[in-house]
Design a protein that fits this description.
Helices cover 32% and strands 19% of the residues. It has 300 residues and is an alpha+beta fold.
């Protein structure tokens, strides 16, 4: 079974988030503490970077937009993709399991991908009929990602498990994660070997390599996809309901599948490598003045 690393133990701050009452005021306070822990500074509401913009979305009513909650659910996301692009761009669903009992007794294909529908970055990759870790599956049904992240779009999602085939029948597929502002694709992130030796490249829409990454080392050179204009078009269509969002796609050069719509990449905790990349990324999105809240209120 080809699984990603086991989830880390909860940090003291995550335990605090889980224990504290669930109110928007405390969300704001705990998110501010998390930002300080991640970036060793307070968030900037004026003149900030991309991480400041993600923080603004998390702590404002923007994150309460029903569309953001809708696409955070891996089952409902497919309805959104069908409406925007057509069902052909969804990863095929084998089954959706509504309870741990149903998940425990389902006859899983020998090769399949098993994920919770209500939380990110969790997956079991089953190959060759290997055993399914039902302790992990049970934990999924007892977990609410909002409790430890305070990302309110996850708070009321139904707890389910979805089973899908491997994308393009590969264990490691390059992921094209396209950052969009008001429906305009601005940066394309390509992730390599996500579950084994993760690396990453960032490109402009013209496929100019940017000299930094977020949260992991720079990856190998990657040729411009033949269908890049289509990838950018799909990202623009899927992002047009949002101010700032990331569209996650997979492609084999001919077919394109939607992996997800990510409201807050890396929970706004991503650190730039090297650190100077944060200012460069901020200018690409918000110009020389840096992030201003009004830039998320209406198209530039």
């Amino acid at each position: 079974m080809l699984n990603p690393p086991s989830p880390h133990r909860l940090t003291p701050l995550e335990r605090l988030k889980k224990a504290m009452p669930k109110t928007r005021w405390l969300d704001h306070l705990l998110l501010t503490l998390q930002f300080w822990s991640d970036h060793k500074r307070l968030p900037r509401h004026f003149g900030g970077s991309l991480n400041d913009a993600w923080f603004y979305i998390k702590r404002s009513n923007a994150i309460l937009d029903p569309v953001r909650a809708f696409v955070s659910d891996k089952v409902l996301l497919k309805e959104y993709v069908t409406a925007k692009l057509g069902a052909i761009h969804n990863v095929r669903t084998i089954v959706v399991l509504d309870s741990f009992g149903a998940a425990r007794h389902f006859n899983y294909p020998d090769d399949c991908v098993i994920k919770p529908t209500h939380m990110p970055a969790e997956v079991i990759m089953r190959r060759g009929g290997s055993p399914v870790n039902f302790d992990t599956v049970r934990r999924w049904f007892h977990s609410n990602f909002y409790d430890t992240s305070r990302e309110a779009n996850y708070r009321y999602l139904r707890r389910r498990v979805i089973v899908e085939p491997f994308i393009f029948d590969r264990d490691n597929v390059e992921e094209f994660k396209i950052f969009c502002l008001h429906g305009r694709p601005l940066v394309v992130q390509v992730d390599f070997d996500r579950y084994t030796n993760p690396t990453q490249n960032l490109y402009t829409p013209g496929w100019e390599l940017l000299p930094f990454a977020v949260g992991c080392p720079l990856g190998p050179g990657f040729p411009r996809p033949r269908n890049l204009p289509l990838l950018l078009h799909y990202a623009a269509r899927l992002s047009e309901e949002f101010n700032l969002v990331r569209i996650d796609l997979y492609t084999d050069g001919q077919h394109t599948l939607v992996g997800g719509i990510t409201n807050i990449p890396q929970s706004g905790s991503g650190r730039f490598v090297p650190a100077e990349g944060e200012a460069v990324m901020g200018r690409l999105f918000f110009g020389d003045s840096g992030f201003q809240p009004m830039q998320l209120e209406s198209p530039p």
